[in-house]
Design a protein that fits this description.
By secondary structure, this protein is mainly β. The chain is built from no helices and eleven strands. Helix content is about 0%, strand content about 55%. The chain is globular and about 55 Å long. The two termini are about 30 Å apart. The relative contact order is 0.31.
Length: about 130
């Protein structure tokens, strides 16, 4: 599922949800991971990452895990260095349904350009376990 650049951004499925009593729209459901989609191979870790307003996390490289990010609150910009050394900016927010896939060995940073805390749901498949 990775592009020739070594990372990918996948539009996620969104579905309106409806009230059982009168069928009005009461929200939405976004599919992040399903085993049968084969986008993420058996996530071993799922966590919430928050980025304070105006802050940058990274850049850093994970050498023993593939990471999959989706913004669930606020706005973020992912800056990713591809295999050829070129930089790419992927902007996303909590109203978009986008999964940013960064495999091990690819450098990435997360920027919060907004004035509120942004939150990112992270799924990872890991080739090591901490002691």
């Amino acid at each position: 599922m990775m592009s020739e650049k070594g990372f990918s951004s996948i539009k996620l499925e969104k579905h309106e949800t409806r009230d059982v009593s009168d069928n009005h729209t009461n929200g939405e459901l976004t599919v992040i991971w399903r085993d049968w989609d084969k986008i993420i191979n058996n996530p071993q870790m799922i966590y919430l990452n928050s980025v304070n307003p105006g802050e940058i996390k990274g850049p850093h490289i994970h050498t023993k895990r593939n990471s999959y990010f989706t913004c669930i609150h606020g706005n973020v910009i992912f800056v990713i260095k591809d295999k050829q050394g070129n930089y790419h900016e992927i902007e996303t927010n909590s109203t978009e349904s986008k999964l940013i896939c960064v495999p091990n060995g690819i450098a990435a940073a997360i920027i919060n350009p907004s004035k509120q805390i942004s939150k990112i749901l992270v799924l990872a498949d890991i080739s090591w376990k901490p002691d």
